[in-house]
Amino acid sequence: MGFAATALFIYLVLLTGYVLSYVHRTVPAAIAGELTQAFEVSGAVLGTLAATYFYVYTVLQIPVGVLADTIGPRIIVTAGAVVAAFGSILFGLAPGWEWAAVGRVLVGVGVAVTFVALLKVCANWFPPQRFATLNGITLLAGNLGAAAAGAPLAWLVTVTSWRSVFVGLGLASLALAVLTWIVVRDSPRECGFEVSYAPPPAVAARWMQALRAVLANPASWPGFFVNIGVAGSFFAFAGLWVVPYLREARGLSQAVASNHASLLVLGVAAGSLVVGLLSDRLHSRVGLMRLFAALYALSWLPLVLRLELPLALSYAWFFIMGLFVPAFVLTWTVAKEMNPPEHAGIAVSLVNVGIFLGAGILQPLVGALLDGFRPVLGSSAAWDRAIWLFAASAAAGALCTLFVRHHYPAPATALSPRQAGAAPTATRPGALH
């Protein structure tokens, strides 16, 4: 295969792993009721059980970035898929919530490597002017996977057990590990190509210096806080609480509530592609980020105000709400472009921590809030307070976009072996946005 075909094939294999990681992430939302009954746990414990995935993800992001920049995506994705497989199978066979929590931790460990490794491969195999577009395509595919974990899984557990679903996901992860090892290569040089967008491997070896440089760069941090609020509120809501909210506070059936959840993530899928394409086409990162984040924060108003919408309009609103969530997609691009290309894995992983830190805080916090207010105020009033919490988080994330600064990269071409020892032209800043 030629250079372009090889790059695309490797990207698609890793993209498949990313889609599977999204299914692992969101499946508890589709079967929250079944998990509560099976393990006989409270809302707070269920929130903690689901959020163990995010806790592990949060802790591992910086180490994963270092590993992606040093030993490379191929090894860490293969190993991660094996760990996720055993974790998912353990969750499916767990006799109690303690073993389920261990399984969820292993799943979190296994899939924590996928996204950063995928973006590292994109940085190595594709020109920087396509990076935001590839981010959008990646999120499009990931959220389509999340949609597959919504209504279809809610139906699937009616014809088989939820335990079979988790065992099946584990077997799929094992198959992915084999495919990754066979197909994926970290850079074009490993496939014998004479040109590459990747920095020379020797640069990435000084990972302690790279980590200090990324952490010391003021431009690395605003995206972290944007992600805590914007992405954290979305993942906490869509990843666990959206279906219980619609059933308990809105009185919707399981099927209709699951349809809302699917439309929410389908909106995110569409918005991810739109924001990535627009960003590369318009040469704008920060402006689009601010616009999308502000509209996402405003989209919580109908839920905060408890507006009674007709079913068709309610479906449309959830899709529109999801459409603006991908403001956070551009934080990865900004982090990558405001740091040297050889530090791409570490830079992306830093802002990525905010996503899972935000979700990991909100999921159990909402569960504890519901447990505390339900006996006193009733389920509907308790959910009102939970929705206020989600909306406030989204608004705080939108405000943090005001602190993001960015230089759009100058045009760059692939590096020949002779040029590989010098910094690529992509690092030269263009106009400040």
Low-confidence stretches: 415-433
CATH superfamily: MFS general substrate transporter like domains
The 3D shape can be described as: globular
CATH topology: Growth Hormone, Chain: A
- Topology pattern, helix = H, strand = E: HHHHHHHHHHHHHHHHHHHEE
* DSSP strand content: under 5%
Describe this structure in words.
This protein has 433 residues and is mainly alpha-helical. The protein has a single domain (3-188, 208-408), classed as Growth Hormone, Chain: A, CATH 1.20.1250. Helix content is 76%, strand content 2%. The protein contains 19 helices and 2 strands. The chain has helices at 3-30, 32-39, 43-70, 73-93, 97-111, 114-125, 131-148, 151-159, 162-183, 201-204, 207-216, 222-248, 254-282, 286-298, 301-304, 311-324, 329-337, 344-377, 379-400, and strands spanning 407-409, 429-432. Helix 17 runs antiparallel to helix 18 and helix 18 (344-377) packs antiparallel against helix 19 (379-400). The longest helix is centred in the last third of the chain and has 34 residues, at 344-377. The two termini are 38 Å apart.
